[in-house]
Amino acid sequence: MQRRRVSEGLLRGELAANSLATARKKSRTLTERDIFLIVSLKYATGGLPLPHREVLKRLRQVLFYGDLSERQLRRLIERALNDTRVYRFLEIRLTPPIDWDMGVVLQRLLPNVREVFVTPSTEDLAPGFVKYYLGLTAARVFSPRFIGGQLIGLGPGTAVQAFAANLSLRPEIAGNLRFCALAYFPNEEGKGTGAEPTMEAVSRCASIANSPSVEGFIAPSQLRDVDLHWAIVEIEPVWEERTKTVACILSQPLTKDGLFPASSIASHQFERVPLTLLQRMVKQGKGVVAIVGGSMGAEAVLATLQAQKWGGPLFNFLVTDDVCAAELLRRMGYRVADVPRRQEWWMKRHCFLAAHLRYGDRSLHRTYQEIAHALSVSIKQVRRLLTKATQTCDEGEPILTLRVQPPSSERAAEFALLQKWQLKEVRVVPSLNENSGETLRLLGEETVRLFTSLVEGKDSVAVGLGGGRAVRAFLEALDFDQLLRQHPSLKRLTLCALTPNPFPRVLGVVAETLLAPLATRYKTDRLQICRYTPKGIQLDAVFLSVGSSLAPDNIFFFAQEEEEIASMREQIAGLILFSFITHEGRTITPRWARELGAFSLNLLSKMVSQGKPVVLLAQGVHKVPVILAARRAGLFNCLVVDRDLAEALIAQA
Question: What is the DSSP letter of 336?
Fold first, then answer.
């Protein structure tokens, strides 16, 4: 009975330990490295995001993810894509679609208006973005119409500033445009000066043209209609009961009848062009673009149109949203349902709104379920809308463009090699050309981080080590005392020398020479250091470096006694674990290496085929030929290299 109780207790303890291990695996901390990798796999094509199943399939091949279940991988992918840190690695561009059909109908109904551009409204979902998207649309439509040397007047307002910030121009045009403020009121505290759009446009064009000589003027009272070529103004919907004000243009209030309120004389000092200047520009056929949107926008547009009775129209182009446009049609007795292609517009509109809810407001980053609730559609439809948003619309530009933005050139090189060569893991460190020793130190430290992740959660690990300066840098950076303290579950760490000491030959830094001091320094049963024997030890991983046939690694003096190798000098790419390898990937083991019992490269390729990590450490572009040869021979599946070498390998891939 007592024995049975003891057995049951041991069983419960084992189950509890397994449950704890499972819980830890499920609650894996999501690192920025995880997020970048998943984002890169998801959006690597630059077009349609890959389905989760494709991301999962590739992720399973990467080191440290293969032991996770399909459910855990799916959960990890969802967590990564819903994490707000995703924006650090994504360049997002949202392009509001244009309802050309509604614009044509409105243009026919509005007197003296040459073109109307209608975009989706975010008023109900994100009112703070209404003016931004209107300005973005205006920039998209009118940027191609500007010609070098033109003077463009910009009024105050958030929408006009968004227009200026999103100008898309060729450098030769951007450098020759001039901008001027149509209003300037420096004494209005907390409201800006009115010249912000002008300064924004100058900064934007100077950046595009890479020139500091873009001209900007802030002197509204000195402007004449004959000098201006374009004017971009914002009509601000307002409501003031006392004065019956419904609109404001260039800080000039307008009543419903298009009149100036009797009390509209300002009590503070400011400068602005008179509204008659806009009217004269319209009469001369110059472009005056009015930007307005929202449910109150229709009243403001109609009031501005009424002002034409007192001197002519104030604008001849209109950029608005579909909420304002629908209200204008209703007030003019036109049914929105009679506008052509409503179903097609519904699809474009919802694609844009879904994309905005997902990516437009970075502070929220709504989930599919939240987007489905906001748009009154199913989660499945949300996925379809977001997928369709990345496809090209009839305007020739996708609603949603997602591009991976690596945080550094090293991280970009890591992912490029991971993808091109289908490796299990790649780590790239900065190249410090003036100090190769410092680069090796960084290489060693990064290898330690990889090694630490490899032993995490394991109770026994056997690792084979080759020789070379890179492996020496790794061992010098590895603090075994700290490693064993931080991983108490690691009961046995076995380090095996794969290259025995070949005395009397001197072949650089061999594994046995590197490991010998460790055997005397660390007296613990948890750390075992030995020479590799095929029958005695089953390796879990291998860390090795390579020798190059190019300077400064010239290896040919190692093989003076080998006639076969000496005669093949031009074909030899380098040396791996005492075996030479040709550029085609054929390996040649010298007689003395066979006699020493050096680690067979066939065992190395077998480990690669089994999915075990075989990590190649290298520094310097002179290692390119031997690494390419080793890849052809299938002798590694993980890389730790410096940036210069990584970029050279990518160029050759």
Answer: G
| Residue 6 located in a structural domain | no
**Do 107 and 160 fall into the same domain?**
yes
Best CA proximity match to 352, nearest among 15, 93, 50, 54:
93
What does pLDDT average to in each consecutive run of 10 residues of the chain (653 residues)? 45 42 56 93 78 90 90 92 88 93 96 95 94 97 94 96 96 94 75 85 93 89 93 93 87 86 56 93 96 95 88 94 96 94 95 94 84 95 92 79 92 94 96 83 96 93 93 93 92 90 63 83 86 85 90 57 65 87 88 78 93 95 94 96 96 84
Residue 427's φ and ψ, nearest 5 degrees, are -125, 130
Residues 363 and 377 both lie in one domain: yes
Name the residue with tokens 């204008």. 328
The first and second tokens of residue 320, run together, are: 């608005």
Residue 91 lies in a domain: no
Burial call 271-299: b when 16+ CB within 10 Å, e when fewer = bbbebebbbbbbeeebbbbbbbbbebbbb
Verify that 321 and 364 share a domain, yes or no: no
- pLDDT for residue 94: 93
In this predicted structure, what is the pLDDT of residue 324?
A: 97
**Cross-strand partners of 616:** 544, 639
Q: For residues 303 and 414, state if they share a domain.
A: no
Answer whether residue 479 is part of any domain. yes
Per-residue model confidence (pLDDT) at position 562: 60
Q: CATH number for the domain including 419? A: 3.40.50.1360
Phi/psi for 319 (5° steps) reads: -115, 120
CB-CB neighbours of 449 under 10 Å? 12
**What is the DSSP secondary-structure string of 344-399?**
HHHHHHHHHHHHIIIII-TTT---HHHHHHHHT--HHHHHHHHHHHTSB-TTSSBS
Whether 554 and 627 map to the same domain: the answer is: yes
Residues 468 and 324 in one domain: no
Phi/psi of residue 263, nearest 5 degrees: -100, 25
Co-location of 327 and 348 in the same domain: no
Q: What is the pTM of this model?
A: 0.78
Asked if residues 495 and 518 have their Cβ atoms less than 8 Å apart, the reply is yes
What single letter denotes the amino acid at residue 488?
P
Is residue 90 situated within a structural domain? Answer: no
* Class of residue 634 by CB neighbours under 10 A (exposed 0-12, middle 13-18, buried 19+): middle
Which two structure tokens, joined as six digits, stand for 356? 């905005």
558 neighbors 504 (Cβ within 8 angstroms):
no
| Contacts with 134 (C-beta within 8 Å, 6 or more apart), sequence order | 119, 159, 162, 291, 292, 293, 319, 320, 321
List all residues 6 or more positions away from 518 whose beta carbon is below 8 Å from its beta carbon.
Answer: 475, 480, 495, 527, 529
Contact 252, 215 (CB under 8 A): no
Structure tokens that stand for 166 in this block:
């999103």
Beta strands 90-94 and 400-404: pairing type? antiparallel
Q: Give the domain range for residue 390.
A: 344-403
Strands (DSSP E) contained in 241-284 are 245-249, 252-255, 271-272
- Spell out the long-range contacts of 600-606 with Cβ–Cβ below 8 A and sequence spacing 24 or more: 600/534, 601/576, 601/577, 601/633, 601/635, 603/534, 604/542, 604/576, 604/577, 604/635, 604/636, 605/633, 605/634, 605/635
**Residues 628, 611 share a domain:** yes
User: To 10 degrees, the CA torsion angle through 524, 530, 533, 535?
Assistant: -10
